[in-house]
Amino acid sequence: MTLMEKTPATWTKQYINGEWVEGSGEKTMENMNPYTGEVIATWRSSSKTDIDQAYEAAQKSSLEWRKSLPGMKEGILRKVSSLMTDRKEEILNMLITESGSTRIKAESEFSAAKRIVDEVASFPYRMKGELLPSNTPGKENRVIREPKGVVGVIGPWNFPLHLCLRSVAPAIALGNGVVIKPASDTPITAGWLIADLFHQAGLPEGVLNVVAGSGGEIGDYFVAHPIPKVISFTGSTKVGQGIGKLAGEHLKETALELGGNNAMVVLEDADIERAAEAAVFGKFLHQGQICMALNRIIIHADVYDQFVKTFVDKTKRIRTGDPSDSKTMVGPLIREKEVQRLLEWIQTAQQDGARLLLGGSGKGSMLEPTVLVDVKPEQDIVQQELFGPVAVLMRAVDEQDAVRLANDTPYGLSGSVFTSNLERGYRVAQSIESGMVHVNDQSVNDEAHVMFGGEKSSGIGRFGGDWAIEKFTRTHWISLQHQYRDFPGIN
Predict the structure, then answer these.
(1) Can you give the residue ranges of every domain in the chain?
(2) Which pLDDT belongs to residue 7?
(3) How many whole angstroms separate alpha carbon 150 and alpha carbon 228?
(4) Confidence of residue 214 (pLDDT cuts 50, 70, 90)
(5) 57-103: per-residue pLDDT in tens?
(6) Handedness of CA 211, 446, 290, 193 (dihedral sign)
(7) Average predicted confidence (pLDDT) for the chain
(8) Which positions are catalytic residues (predicted)?
């Protein structure tokens, strides 16, 4: 049975305190297939009352969940991982149907999401405390690690399963309650599917809840609500800045993974064939709708012409169209208006002197893989996050100029350097103002046990491995006075 054949109630209702319930908001919302335009399902939006109930359920259940044995928490996560394996085709089909993922991208997302679940299954055993000395006679200092309480997760539409599970799974494994507000474009794979997996795995009622609705209607209330201690958000920098400001007003901690304007630096000693191949993948995977996707490819002048020709030749060979075709590399953008946005940027760039080598046209939600050269550093198409299948190729005079161009952006998420000298690549990577840089690889990398996060306008905080443990737990100092103290000035 596929997701599309399941009982509609499972994918059209809120999930609160272990039950699928009708939303009580005023809006009726549609979940659409971005490639065909077909309406997958309609649902009634959540209201503030629904959010209250979800957060209250998470708070109440987390008091018991945090005390459950580590083996129980591990068992739930292991079961979720097993269920993902059993339901793999079902999950892949929904990622293709709901977010326009190509099968290549859906396979990649599924694997990354499952690795997260497998990694965090060990977290209940990794909450380490400390015993610290004291200058007070007879005092024993214990610093323990404990869950923060309730975590609010606002998920994105581009990698909905992976990027929601990146916060949901560790938060639950560490003893927190969780409420998800999935992106309105992907409420199933960013919310209800995750709830269904944990429900089927036997997670106690109320530990995980899902409320779905438009950010304009319930977003601020979701963030400002008094119960959650942490708000985890993955999405645009503009929205993330608003969430950060609102969370700060209410003294909430945030984990913000925001936009990127990522660059690949190709030095004169690089293997051009390998560099171009990596650049095509890092640019066009999921139509470039990835925070880590390559926006700018900066090439040393000595190999510029060779790289451009090789890159264009390889780009011409990638298949576009139906995302369910296993050979398709570039499928639909999430919405037609995103195609129009990019077409306007392409046109403006050409008016300002950029040269179009490939693509530049679109229809419906499809945009041809596009390659631009002769761009100016100050142009919008260089300075803004593209989030689409548009590659911008830039010429650098030398290594120093390449680093300068790579850093000429308010963003700092991921990056790439290609060179035949790994130590040179390491040195250049250290000069790039980015949270992550990959030598002789493209910029789209994510490993569950390694830190993930950006600098500058690309976000605050780190995900993955021990960094996730730090984010979703707090330290608590408890001292024990083994012999009573004498206090000066008393008696």
Answers:
(1) 3-258+458-477, 262-439
(2) 45
(3) 5
(4) confident
(5) 999 999 999 999 999 999 999 999 999 999 999 999 999 999 999 99
(6) negative
(7) 95
(8) 257
Q: What whole-number distance in Å separates Cα of residue 352 and Cα of residue 1?
A: 53
262-439 topology per CATH: Aldehyde Dehydrogenase; Chain A, domain 2 (3.40.309)
> With bands split at pLDDT 50, 70 and 90, how would you rate the model's confidence at 10?
low
The backbone region for 144, taken as left when phi is positive above 0, alpha when psi lies in -120 to 50, beta otherwise, is beta
The DSSP call for residue 191 is I
- pLDDT value at residue 9: 52
Q: Identify whether the C-beta of residue 180 lies closer than 8 Å to the C-beta of residue 153.
A: yes
- Name the one residue in this structure whose structure tokens are 């394996």: 85
In order of 13, 76, 252, 326, 400, the CA distances from 433 in angstroms are 43, 39, 27, 36, 14
| Residue 194 structure tokens | 């995750």
Distance CA 98, CA 324 (A): 11
Mean pLDDT of the region 168-182:
98
The bridge status of strand 150-154 relative to strand 177-181 is: parallel
257 assigned to active site? yes
User: pLDDT digit string (tens) for 117-167?
Assistant: 999 999 999 999 999 999 999 999 999 999 999 999 999 999 999 999 999
CB-CB contact of 419 with 200 (8 Å): no
Look at strands 208-210 and 230-234 and give their pairing.
Answer: unpaired
Tokens coding 70: 């580590």
Distances (CA, A) of 390 to 94, 104, 264, 265, 360: 26, 19, 14, 17, 8
Q: Out of 109, 257, 338, 399, pick the active-site residue.
A: 257
Q: What is the pLDDT of residues 391-418, one digit of tens each?
A: 999 999 999 999 999 999 999 999 999 9
Residue 317 token pair = 């060979």
Element (H, E) at 372: strand 370-373
CA distance 104 to 93: 12
Q: What's the CA gap between 432 and 407, in Å, rounded?
A: 6
Please give the C-alpha separations between residue 456 and each of 282, 291, 300, 409, 427, in angstroms, as whole numbers: 21, 14, 26, 9, 20
* Distant-in-sequence, close-in-space partners of 155: CB < 8 Å, separation ≥ 6: 163, 164, 180, 181, 182, 183, 186, 190, 191, 234
Question: Cα(39)–Cα(241) distance, rounded to whole angstroms?
Answer: 32
Helix (H) or strand (E) holding 393: strand 390-396
Residues in the chain, overall count: 491
User: 3-258+458-477 has which fold?
Assistant: Aldehyde Dehydrogenase; Chain A, domain 1 (3.40.605)
